[in-house]
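fyi for ur records
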Amino acid sequence: MEIVAARTFNTLYIFLDIIWLLAYTAILIYNKRYLAIIMGVFGGLLYFAVDYGIFYLALNTRIIIGADPFGFLLWLSMSYGFTNFAWIWLLLDKDGKAVEWSTLTIAGWLSVALLSQNFGSSFAIVSIQRGTASYHGIMALILLAGYGYLILKNLKSTSSEKVNILRLLAIGIGVQFSWEFILLISNIRPAGVLPLIVNSLIETNLGMPYLYLIHQAVTKRVKWL
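which gave:
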């Protein structure tokens, strides 16, 4: 099944988003959330390797009109890669401030989208899209492997040792849904709920079991960050 994830926006969106990313990073530094920053950078680079290396170069499923592919995809990957991974890491920390971190992230995304729509009419337009038929099945398999491992682990564990799988699902689905929904209501994403539903279930959520295991391993060993 081919699901086309498309966006059309003006370049003011890019400038505002870069400002937002710098402000978001400054807030993390001020609050000494260094591991979240490190994981955010890792997430951005990972997204770039997938989006530019696989989707654009290898599979030719990524189409970009109005921008240089390399520079544009580097920004796009760092934008959502950084915020997604940093936000997820903060939620996995369970520091009692999930509402604050979530509101900050969503409000930033929403403000950038709506401000660019209001004030960006004189800026150049960029259109992008990618088809998903060639890789959503593989992504679903990665999701099954990760959650399957946690399920098998839980089946052999006592209740106090069990991983809260529902919480991981809520984070994995909720993070992707948040920015997909903002893209939809700000008219950056074309009208239609199928990309919103399918992408929210699969695209960020597939990494949640692995991020959880990385978080568990890192936070046990690294206390000074």
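Helices lie at 11-30, 34-58, 69-93, 98-119, 136-155, 165-185, 194-202, 208-221. thats all i got for now
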